[in-house]
Amino acid sequence: MRKKQQILACMLLMTAGFIVLSGNTAAVALDETDLFVTLDSSWEHANEGDTFAIRADVKNIGEQTALITWIRLENIPDDWNVQPPQHLILILQPGETQSCFFVVERGATDATIYATAQAYNAPVVQSNRIAIPVNVWIVAGLSLVCGVVAYREVKTRKKQKK
Fold first, then answer.
1. pTM metric for this prediction
2. How many CB atoms lie within 10 A of CB 42?
3. Strand ordering across the sheet containing 35-42
4. What is the mean pLDDT of residues 102-114?
5. Residue 103: inside a domain, yes or no?
6. Range(s) of the domain holding residue 89
7. Distance between CA 18 and CA 68 in Å, rounded?
8. Is the dihedral of CA 129, 134, 136, 142 positive or negative?
9. pLDDT score of 90
10. CA 35/CA 58 separation, integer angstroms
């Protein structure tokens, strides 16, 4: 029953949004505008299982109202969990900024993530990228292996010179 209520509420909100748009912006609905999106994270997110928040700020930097703007996180590995998967902003007035929050549970895979924002009358834009770091033990292991390989290579070259 709860699912039906959520769907009905979404349908009512979208209908109300379209009614408002038809009265206020019908003459400029096809004119394009520009968006700007930034990404920021909080809390610790270096280890598998860490849960952290990501804020995406979307600003309409154009001169027209942005209609039906979708914001998504991109380059998310399959073993991560992102809630909600995307955000919808029905109307974004010129100069207006809205924030969207994502809760991410990190998996074992490392990634560099970013957000995209696209409106009905604005092209897709990408945010800055946030690198979710590699586990410290992996870096230490790789450094050790590289150090041993470099040491053996130097030793081999010194023997060849003699």
1. 0.63
2. 10
3. 35-42, 51-60, 97-105, 81-83
4. 89
5. yes
6. 31-133
7. 10
8. negative
9. 94
10. 7
